[in-house]
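Journal club side-thread
Mid-discussion, someone asked how the predicted structure for our own chain would compare to the paper's figures. Pasting it here so we can look after the session.
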Amino acid sequence: MPSEKTPSTSAKILYRPVGVVSSIVGGLIASLVFKQVWKRVGSGDKPDAPGPLESEYSFKEILLAAVLQGAIFAAVRTVINRQGAKAFQRATGEWPGS
């Protein structure tokens, strides 16, 4: 459980590299998860999700892809950031958040 006191400036600074690395890893993981989900829910022959300017897809399908991608990226980012903060706290004794 995070401590109730305000995190120190040094904890915030020390956590920055951890946060950057976890964001990169989280983006890669989220991308892989989204591609696997889209293969199962998307229609058509193309394995990649449609972009907003691809006219051969319906608006409904493009919107579904965007909503799924956003939800997956947000969920993965939250899990990665939270677990990174917990690991940082276990290692340093300080919660890195604001």
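Post-session note: Residues 9-92 form one domain.
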